[in-house]
Amino acid sequence: MKSTKNKRTSLLSRARRAVLGGPRVRTIADSHIPDENTGEYYSAQIERSMAKISKDAAFRYEFFGDFLKSRNLLAGVDDLLCVGCRNVFELEYFAALGIKNVSGIDLFSVDPRIKVMDMHRMEFADASFDALYAGDCFEHSKDPCQVASEFIRVVKPGGLIMLSIPMNHRTDEVDRVPFFSKEDLYQYFQGTKMEILLENLKKGPEEKIIGLSVGFKTGGR
User: If you count DSSP H runs as helices and E runs as strands, how many of each does the chain have, helices first?
Assistant: First the structure.
């Protein structure tokens, strides 16, 4: 019978092999052996994300790039963190806008520009970034209150947090947090003063709300 440690490691090893396989892919398991529940959470997240490793969600991050340009906010952003980036498309896009230091994190990495890190406990000092972008990853949170707290912590007071989330979506082991209104998102950020700069609802068939994009300045913790 496998030991608990081996079982946890096996969960992430299967996710690692799901698409790319082998040691080319670094995962959170390389530096952190989670408890069984967290290991299953990591495994599900990594496996789903790696299945989309070549996807370029340009429509998502370019929307926020246009927002930064239209509001003349780029001059105030030297350090940007992209959470849950999966690949380097958004990193390269934001760098091309002139942002000096663009960093990415995810539970796995196929590129040295993406640090392997859990958004629930990021390894950055307080107030490390001028802005943070998280495109459709907040709904993957195991503990959304903790993730919101971490987003606020690593962004400088007065800095920007930019998020997109699905709404009225089906939840499962990967898309864990339901959102039916903008208030469902904002409740997790009650620990900071929010100055809303962007609020855009995306509509699908029959005018059903299927997504929300927001940008707000944070007052810090």
Answer: 6, 9
Q: What is the DSSP letter of 53?
A: T
d(CA 101, CA 80): 6
Specify the pTM: 0.89
| Length of the chain counted residue by residue | 221
Write the CATH number of the domain with boundaries 58-218. 3.40.50.150
Question: How far apart are the C-alpha atoms of 134 and 189, rounded to whole Å?
Answer: 14
In tens, the pLDDT along 30-62 reads: 777 678 788 899 999 999 999 999 999 999 999
Q: How far apart are CA 187 and CA 189, in angstroms?
A: 5
pLDDT at 17 over 80: no
> What does the domain layout of the chain look like in residue ranges?
4-50, 58-218
